[in-house]
Amino acid sequence: xxxxxxxxxxxxxxxxxxxxxxxxxxxxxxxxxxxxxxxxxxxxxxxxxxxxxxxxxxxxxxxxxxxxxxxxxxxxxxxxxxxxxxxxxxxxxxxxxxxxxxxxxxxxxxxxxxxxxxxxxxxxxxxxxxxxxxxxxxxxxxxxxxxxxxxxxxxxxxxxxxxxxxxxxxxxxxxxxxxxxxxxxxxxxxxxxxxxxxxxxxxxxxxxxxxxxxxxxxxxxxxxxxxxxxxxxxxxxxxxxxxxxxxxxxxxxxxxxxxxxxxxxxxxxxxxxxxxxxxxxxxxxxxxxxxxxxxxxxxxxxxx
Length: 304
What we know:
This protein is α+β, with helices and mostly antiparallel strands. It has nine helices and 13 strands. It has helices at about 20-35, 80-90, 100-115, 130-140, 180-185, 185-195, 200-205, 250-265, 280-290, and strands spanning about 1-5, 10-15, 45-55, 60-65, 75-80, 120-125, 145-155, 170, 215-220, 225-235, 240-245, 270-275, 290-304. The longest helix is centred in the middle third of the chain and has 20 residues, at about 100-115. The protein is globular and about 60 Å long.
């Protein structure tokens, strides 16, 4: 399956069903980006197969399909675009280029064929990149399958911190944290987010050793973290809170955490974006900080 007229510019896709194809593609992407090859474990993630896009010999991106969990019959879909990951490394992701929409639309359409051959009734994916996913969903005529959460936004010009904040100490994680500092978050992440988190997982989540990331936390009476949030500079104008993890924390305490992020962000950008996933405590804190709902976080479905 291809579009284009010459070998150098032709966009081609290939259907892959070989075991651990996801690991090989990740390694190839890192090589393309000129980044060190990561150490990845060969684990069974329930991958049904993958669809890979190239222009000539250059890897553009891929989607992975996952076997549905019974009684569901739709395959899960996750995507990676090399161009987008390159911009993410440089701190300028943006809303998505026309070429990204083109490549991802072709990938999703081809993924339906792979899912159909496996006996699935459709493919579903989560809106992880806002406008880009929405444009692709419209391009391939996917429907909204579920509302997963909300996107909140704050324009930072003229913002003032709310009055009456509780006296709660906020600690900032160093840009280059030690393994011991990262290990303090492992139990909290495992308990709140599920799964067996490791120090490496936490390092990835908080952007350890990467410029443009900020992580702040709150501690309980025993000095253990009970809440933390990580924000990243998306581009020259926007910072995004990628993660808010909390346990036994009030909305007022989370508000203090958010204010600490906002006060640093407004020195560098003009807007702050936060994703909230059916979290009423976080929603109350966001509203208290002056954020408003700007968009919804959706799941999309394309039938086979």
